[in-house]
Structure formats: C-alpha cells, structure tokens
Amino acid sequence: MPSIPLAIDTRGIERVYKAKPRPITALAGVDLRVEPGEFFGLLGPNGAGKTTLIKILTTLLLPTAGTAHVFGFDVERETKRIRRIMNIVSGGEQSGYGLLLVREQLWMFSQFYGLGAREGWRRVDELIEAVGLQDQRLQKVSSLSTGQRQKMNMARGLLNDPWILFLDEPTLGLDVSAARAVRTLIREWKGAVVGRTVLLTSHYMAEVEELCDRLAIVDRGRIVAIGTPADLKRRIQRDSIFRLELDRLDGGASSLSGLPGVLKAVTASDGSSTSGGARQRTAVKLVLADDNALGPVVTALGQRGSQIVSLEKSEPTLEEVFVQLVGRSFADDSEDGGSDTDGRGSSSGTDGAMADPSAPPPPTAATERMTEDAPLAATGLPER
Amino acid sequence: MTGLTPSFDLGRTEGRGLRETFRGYLTAARIGWAVEANWADPILFFTYSVAKPIAAALILVVMLDIVSGGQAPAYRRYVVTGVALWSFVQGGFAGLAMSVLEDRERYRMLKYVYVSPTTFAVALLGRGTARVAIGGMGALTTLAFGALVLGMPVDPARVDVLLFVASMALGLVAIIALGLGMAAVVLQTRQDSWSYPEAVAGAMFLLVGAVFPLAVLPGPVQAIGLVLPLTWWMEGVRRSLFPGGVSAVGGPGSLFTELTGREAPDTPALLLALLGTTLLVTLAAAVAFRVSEHRAKDRGLIDQTSGS
Q1: Quick check: A32 and A214 in contact, CB under 8 A?
Q2: Interface contact flag, A36 B8, Cβ < 8 Å
Q3: Is the Cβ of A114 closer than 8 Å to some Cβ of chain B?
Q4: How many other C-beta atoms can be found within 10 angstroms of the C-beta atom of residue A117?
Q5: Residue ranges covered by each domain of chain B
Q6: What is the pLDDT of residues A158-195, one digit of tens each?
C-alpha cells in the first residue's frame, strides 16, 4: 500500500472573526498532526476553539491564515475530495427533516454521497441495525427522542464509510444511557477496521480519556499540550505517588523516608490513624522516584511487622492536568461568562472565540517547568 | 458493524461527474417534494398550494368587476393568468430562498448537505425544482378554476403551443435563477430573515405586470419591469393562451411603446427579450451565489442560526 498521508495536518492555522468593537480570534496558530488510525481528542472548555478547528477541517469554514490538510487534501482547494472521505456528527442539536422517515432521510443522504439507489438502501438498513434504530426505522424523524436522533445522526455520519469521522461533542445533551450507547457505537465502528480515524471534541474529560489514544488540550485558540492521557498526567506528576493504609507503623511515616527510592513519606492528610476496633490503622502517602521503588518499601514494611491493609496509586485526573497547564478549571470559564459551547446555536458565528487573542495563556508553574525542563518537541507541545 | 469496507484508494476521492451531479439534484428535489408537499397534512397543503392562489384570483376578479362594471373580460383573463403564474414565482423564487433558511434554522441540516460531495448550488436547485412543481399545481388549479368558474375558457385551437413551451421553459429557468440570487442574499443574513423572500416576491409582483399592465407605473419603475424576465415570461404565456389579449408590456403610456413606437412586442421580439433577460439574470445569479457562498464560508455563516 502506498504511504498514506497524515489524516490531519494543520500548520499555523488561525481564525479571526470580524467583530465589533475588535476582531475575535478563535484559533491562534494551531499546529496539529494526527496519524491515520488514531482516535484523537480535542479537550477544552467552551470557547476554546475546538469547533472552529473542526469546521475548518470539514470545509465549513475558511481559515484566516495557515494551511490545513485532511489526508493530504487542502481544505480550501480540494473540498470535494475531502468531503467524499470524511463525515461529521455534531451533538447538542436537534437536526433532521422532521417529516421524513428515518430510513428515508438516511437514504437521501446516501444519495448525496453518491451511493447507488440499491446500495444506499442496503447501507442504510445495515447502519440502522448497527445503531439500534430498527424499531424506529419507519418512524418520522420528528418523533424521535434526542438520543434516537443522535443515533440517526451517527448513522448518517457513517453512510459514506469515512476515512475520518469528526465528532463534535457527540454526547452533548444526551442522558447517561444514550451517551454510553453513542460512545460504544463510536468505539465499535472505529475498532472494526484498522485505519479509521476519529477526531473527537469534548469537554467531558472522562469521555476523552475513555475513547482517545491521544489528545490535545486546547485553550483560547491554542494547543497547550498534546499526548496520550497517561503522558499528560505524567507531565504534571512525574513522581509515583502511593497511598498505603497499614495496620501499624512503628516510628511513624518519617521512618520510611530513608528507604531507597523514597523521596518523601508523610502521614496521609485524610487522617493519620483511624480507629479500627482494638487496633489503629495508619495512612501514609509515599512519593517514590518511580514505581520500582515500591517493592523495597513493601519488603521493609513486612520486616517491621506492618501489614498493608490497602494500597492505591494516586494519579492526577485530566481535569487536574488542565488546571495545571492552563491555570484555571473548566468551571472557571463558565463562571467568567465564557461563550457557549463553541457557539452552537449562536448567531454570532464566532464560535470558539476568545476576547483577547493576542495574549498568550498565562504562565503557570506547570508550563514554566516544562519549558525549563525539556525542548518543545520532547514535551509534545506545539512548536510556535 | 459488518459490511463497511475500508479503502484508502484515492480513486474514492474523485467524483463521478455529471452522474453524481444529477443524482444530487434528484435527491434534493425529492427531499424538497417530501418536505414541502406536505402530504402528511393534506388540508394544510391544499390551503397553501391551491386555495391561496384561487382565493387571490377570485378577490382580484371581483374587485376588477366592481371597478369596471363587468365590462373588462379581457382584463379578467389577464388577472387570473397573472395570479396563476405567480404560484410558480412563489414556489421557485421565494421557496428556493426559504429552503436555505429552513435547512439552516429549522432542520439544522444545511451544514450536512453542504459538507456532502453534492455541489451546494445543485442541491438548492433541486429543492427549488420541487417548489416550482408544487407551485405548478397551484397554477394549473387556478387556471382550471378560471376556465370553469370565472368564464375564461382556453380555446385549444388558438393556443400557440410553441410560444407557450418556449416561454415556460425560459421563464422557469429565470424563476430558479432569481431564486438562487435570493438564496445568495439570505445566506448572508445573520438575523431573522424569514420574511425577505416573500417581501421581494411581493415587490416583483407589482413590477412585472402580474395583475396590471406596466403602463400604469411611472417610467423608471417600468424600466425595472422591462429588465426582469418575469415580465416577458408572463407576456409570452398570456399571449400563447389568449392571443390578442391585453399586453402587460406595451400600450398607451407604456415605456415600451414610447421607446419602440409599437403597441406591443411581436412574438420574436418577446422571445428575444425573454431569452436575453433570462441569460442576464442567470449569469448574475450564478455570480452572486458563488460570491455569497464563499463569503458565507469565510464568515462562518453556513451553519449559523439566529434562533428565530
């Protein structure tokens, strides 16, 4: 097979919306490369620029500056070629021709994608079964629930068997069960064939963590960090941190500090000792140079007659990663009156926008540390 | 998810030319028919597509009879034909533009149609064709009503079939072209613009001699009417169905007569004017739509909604 170009390759993509009293920058120079076959996530708060990037990649919007290619095709000049091999599904919207039947609407879109009439019906029935809408196939679109409508939307997005599927907040507004069904569907579709690529935007941390091989944290039109979820977590927490609960610990937590590989040992903040009937338990937080240092610690504890009641590795969440890298949480954006979810349903057309584009994100301890510790390429941060 | 065959064959990214275009056009027309020809609610469909033009014709005929004391049977034919033909304009011109608004605002499907391989303008033309067909039903019913109820029978022996076919063909092209031009306008609107297509259609109703000859209008306004293909289309259809009837274009006090010295255009001149103005409008609409589409894509208007 000839070499396949990058599924997504953007260089210095900028998007500035004309607005009063001043222009609004939604994307401030995004460099992103996604390999074919990747499940890639864009994680960021409302107004980060995720949807704007998807709009550019799906040929709905022109970039102000920079270049973007999808499977080697230019998003500005080779739109038709891109449209034949990609599809998009957005969440949080009630889309569909209400008077048409589910099967009918899907078939019509199959025709827009150039499938033959019979092939279209075959594909539609296949996808209706795959998304679990057999019972609704002859129902009018207007009678579908939100979750069913999103399943139909997913089926529409898969009609042309896209090489790359863009999912823009696909579970937004769905209840837990419907969201799970959509995630399962996405995972199964992606996993069924090697090489299928998915770009998912979401501000649901768990969703991104569950589905994505790699992700980029986007904030105020910039990519703040790229990596696997584990990479990103490691980036803000390089040491191995464990919480141990012991039946007893003679000499206290500080007695463990001298062991090889132990950087720090303190009594856990959630209670130094708990009353467990006649005996007392001690909780200890251990900061180790790496996971391998745990073995000697366990051995040493055994030799001292301490029994481990529970052991838990402490890992930062993606939310904590975001806070560390960006300097604020998703919730802060909402409280600050940040724009709605990438402008969906807005009339401004300035989705994913930030008010002051020129200002770089505020430096945080984490970003400063990364800059000092490693070159850009090594940290996975975009080159600027 | 069986049966979905992966393929990184670059051949897949190439289109199938006219076949693909035609398929997209037919599909859009089918969507338009299914969505607009509201068979799910036949009463609503009948009211809007059939009863509305008949009622409009009836009102105008009654007014005309009161004013003329029933002494203007030729004008009766003029009015009924104008109202009947206007159904095409309502469908093709206003309807095509409305389909942009409906797909974007109500159905939220415009962006999905837009990012499909089908050319956007072709999809809109398909929608417009469906609207024209629906308008045609209203036109036929109104003409039939005129013939059977209002005493203006069409004499098949006197019908100029060639003129009728040529006028209708060019006229429908002109209507769709004007509709595409209007679609280009509403594609740019950020605010509630549901009333724009109907408003512009209403203005044209007065300019093209639909229910009264241009001669009653001031000269400059008549000039606008003369460059609109709809004026010549109506003139051609009226003349083909009712030879020797009232002319919308010429006559005493008309700009046309003042400029040419003729009472009314002869048939070749009429067809030439219709062809020329249709070509002009079609070219202008194509350019306008191309510019508008690019601007909409540049400004992020394809999938914007105003919440209206």
Answers
A1: no
A2: yes
A3: yes
A4: 12
A5: 17-299
A6: 999 999 999 999 998 888 888 898 999 999 999 999 88
Residue A61 near chain B (CB below 8 Å): yes
A252 near B CB under 8 A = no
pLDDT in tens, A303-315: 888 889 999 888 8
pLDDT, tens digit, for every residue of B44-99? 777 777 788 788 888 888 888 888 777 777 788 888 899 999 989 988 898 888 88
Using the 3D structure, point to which of A178, A208, A234 is the last residue of a domain: A234
For chain A, how many structural domains are there in total?
2
Task: Classify strands A240-246 and A222-227 as parallel, antiparallel or unpaired.
Answer: unpaired
DSSP code per residue over B61-116: HHHHHHHHTT--HHHHHHHHHHHHHHHHHIIIIIHHHHHHHIIIIIS--HHHHHTS
Examine residue A328 and state whether it is found in any structural domain, yes or no: no
Tell me if A97 and B35 make a contact (CB, 8 A cut-off).
yes
B130 to chain A, closest Cα gap in Å:
15
Same domain (yes/no): A165, A308: no
Q: Tell me the chain B residues in contact with residue A73 when contact means C-beta distances shorter than 8 Å.
A: 13
A198 and A309, same domain (yes or no): no
Q: What is the domain range of residue A298?
A: 238-314
Give the neighbor-by-neighbor strand order of the sheet with A214-219: A86-90, A164-168, A197-202, A39-43, A214-219, A222-227
Q: Are residues A263 and A216 in the same domain?
A: no
Q: Which two tokens stand for residue A283?
A: 């909780």
Question: Domain ends where: A264, A297, A314?
Answer: A314
Q: Which residues of B touch A140 (CB under 8 A)?
A: 40
Q: What is the pLDDT of residues B215-236, one digit of tens each?
A: 999 999 999 999 999 999 999 9
Q: Does A192 fall in a domain?
A: yes
Query: Do the Cβ atoms of A4 and B8 come within 8 Å?
Result: yes
The CATH number of the domain where A39 resides is what?
3.40.50.300
